[in-house]
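Dear colleagues,

For the upcoming journal club I promised to circulate an example of a predicted protein-ligand complex. I picked one with NA7 because it came up in last month's discussion. The inputs are reproduced below in full, followed by the predicted structure.
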Amino acid sequence: MAAEQELDVVIVGAGFAGLYMLHRCRQQGLSAVVLEAGDDVGGTWYWNRYPGARCDVESLEYSYGFDEDLQQEWEWTERYAGQPEILRYLQHVAERFDLRQDITFGTRVTAAAFDDATTTWRVARDPGADLVARFVVMATGCLSSANVPELPGADTFEGATYHTGRWPKEGVDLAGRRVGVIGTGSSAVQAIPVIAQEAAHLTVFQRTPTYTVPAWNHPLDPAEQAAVKADYAGLRAANRAMFSAFGGRIPRREGSALEVDEAERQAEYERRWALGGLPFLAAFNDLLLDPEANETARRFVLAKLREVVHDPAVAERLTPDHVIGCKRLCVDSGYWATFNRANVTLVDLRETPIDRITPGGVLTTEREHPLDVLVFATGFDAMTGALSRIDIRGVDGQPLTDAWSAGPRTYLGLMTHGFPNLFLVTGPGSPSVLANMVEAIQQHVEWIGDCLDALAAGGFERIEPELEAQDRWVEHVNEVADVTLFPRCSSWYLGANVPGKTRVFMPLPGFPSYVETCQQVVADGYRGFTRR
Ligand code: NA7
């Protein structure tokens, strides 16, 4: 039998994680290839091309720090980079490090099976022959598997249908058209103000109202960019010391929201509001821990909402009643003000749920809303969706979906017992989506790279977590999450947005202590892992 070429590493996905993993493998002298379903690099930033798509972490912070020349030479144009600019950045990275030659585009990984006898993974792809590799790295992204609700009559709709995360490359002409958007999460909050300006009429179907803070996006001041670059390492280190690995330039304020008087609290919220963005929630250190403290921030934001929205009935419908921040806080550019426009209608699905989709639009229990275009801004099967769509089989052919039937189980969010030599980048059980994703990705890629080196140096060919260590880790993630207010909402952090998905809090809050644990595990000789 002709011997198949055995690779060191197969990497799945060519987004921020896959690109850096490939670069890192090459630096370590490992043979590696990337398999990517899209026809270009970019991952999240390849697929999410909806109007207004933009990062909610500042561009100077949402970028690679692993290469000093790269971070010095790349010039960001805006405070928050739009999707086209982030995509250009990743294309630049691919070219700069000559990565494309080892990436196969337009190729979806369909299955990966571990062979105990040879300690290799066989990776099936479409199209193309199987690949055999010693290690597999899943760089498949946390928000890459679109969640499209099954609404009765959806297939009868005669207009065009889109999901924000699968927006056509060539764009969609919405001028003069009646557009409906289902969902009011981060994607919708960005898309709605832009669509409203273009469409003849926009109908927003809201199931849960959302809190937003202003982005105050603006062109980057060259002096500000130069100041960051003068000590980029300093900013990266400051970010890594932050709970969510960003916002290191904004002085951290310790102490409870309840320790200060009303005037001081309001002043701090006003100051943060004027700065804009997600660091609003770092105004005090207990906003995501203490319901009473959280309520003070919530009230502040709702007062802002009522200032902006003219019609009190519309403002009321836009008012969320859950804890602020337990669903991802949205960062907006004119979201609430959009509901003052004459061509925008807000439909509250809690009052008038969708009955079905008709050939001409959306029928709620109240009336039919005629539409030419229906946009699903309904989010993702987050954190596990991309993995569960691949038939992954570990020792004795065990499917990963079985091992995770009661929710994802990992050690450090990096590996799963029974699936040796299979690494996850920003997997469930790691800070991932609760952190600046690029920082989280870099930390994982570097940890995995170091691990591969350590295995080689120690003469090991196989690594997997001990079941006990994994069980303790899952418990730890739950304990940490339970100290916070995060589990109090039906969010995608819990899998609550996908019907039938097991409700388990998936990301781990607290980047710095997580990183410390990862380092300590290594210092203790890969504590909790079995190496052979
Ligand atoms: P999200 O944040 O999951 O938002 C999805 C929205 O779609 C949210 O408002 C949902 O309401 C709504 N939704 C989902 N299913 C339905 C159905 N069946 N009917 C009506 N409305 C529905 O996804 P995004 O893409 O906006 O953002 C994902 C992340 O990307 C974001 O958090 C940032 O980290 C970047 P619900 O709240 O579930 O009631």
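Two points we might discuss: Residues 437-458 form the longest helix (22 residues). DSSP finds 16 helices and 20 strands in the chain.

See you all on Thursday,
B. R.
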